[in-house]
User: What shape does this take?
Amino acid sequence: MKSPNKEQLSDSITLYRGDCLEVMAGLDAGCVDAIITDPPYGIGEDGGKFRGRKGGGHRVLEKMDWDKSSPDKVYFDEMLRVSECQIIWGGNYFSDKLPQSRGWLYWDKLMGGDYSDGELAWTSADGVLRKFTKCNKAHGKRHPTQKPVSLMVWCVKRTPGTVLDPFMGSGTTGVACVKLGRKFIGIEIEQKYFDIACKRISDELKRERFALPLKTRGKQSKLL
Assistant: This one.
């Protein structure tokens, strides 16, 4: 693969289009404060099918075939190497690639029916399990596994400093960082999703330039 493309959306927002393993290989150990990411789980949730009963289900998105398998262990080793703390969604699918942890996060999706009740995130925190509740039935998804911005804001608040998302997808983690005035580095290999992320984050930067300062901006609860 050719060298990753770089987009500098602002002084605090840097995006790369390429293989995150290549980008992380060029980073120093512990150079970012936090990893917050949602890697492929390897369960085929990459678009192209309609799930749910009559009158329900997710909007059908283009089948991209990026969720055939989860990333190799070397990707997780690199994520742990370059960051001080981590929140990795789908951690239950990566039990053979991550250390043991008791500081899990749980997203209660309020879905019901044929859908999973929620999702789990592995974290590097030595703490107790914490829950976030938000219904995931809202429309407007641009990515098959896109998470709510409010969920990612909750995650970002649990970490300090600069955030890196090596599996950026449609850029929700980056949008959350812009809302909170945090530095963000995003990496995405699929051109389609990279373009979506660039636009979503750029639009959020424009909105925030004209928004009143948030009372909660900059506040965080330390993960570790």
Remarks:
- The chain is about 25% helix and 20% strand.
- Strands lie at 5-10, 13-17, 32-37, 83-89, 105-108, 118-123, 130-133, 163-165, 184-188.
- The chain has one domain: 5-209.
